[in-house]
Amino acid sequence: MSIYVFVYGTLRAGEINDLAQAAARRGLPAARYVGRASVPGRLVDFGDWPGLIPVDDGRRVRGDVFQVAPALVALMDEIEEYQPGKPCCFVRREVLARLEPPAAASELRCQYYPIDPALRGTAADIDADDWVAYRLARPLPRGR
């Protein structure tokens, strides 16, 4: 059985928790890239990583959809420090992701990791809809 996941931040290719590299390190089956997609939400900036807050006001967050084995979902839970029934910043939920053309299907039900808005702390709102593009364009903090 495989599962679709939507990733928008550090689990994306080339980022610090790159899903493909994390799977390879653990000897897990590789994720199959499905395509670019978006989900309802807005981004916040925690510094080295983003958070996604679900909204229903038309804003969307861009990311990638992968098809994964259940063992890889367990690894993603570990990376996101998600434990069902316990309070944590990230929660795993289901979302309808809208695939970008030329994908065969237009929408897929995916697992994803939005944040609990009550635990966002002082994370700054981001106007951008794509974490990677935003991170690459923002100035480096002083001292780096």
From TrEMBL:
This is AIG2-like family protein 2. It comes from Achromobacter xylosoxidans (strain A8). InterPro entries: AIG2-like_dom, GGCT-like, GGCT-like_sf. Signal peptide: none annotated. Residues 5-132 form the Gamma-glutamylcyclotransferase AIG2-like domain.
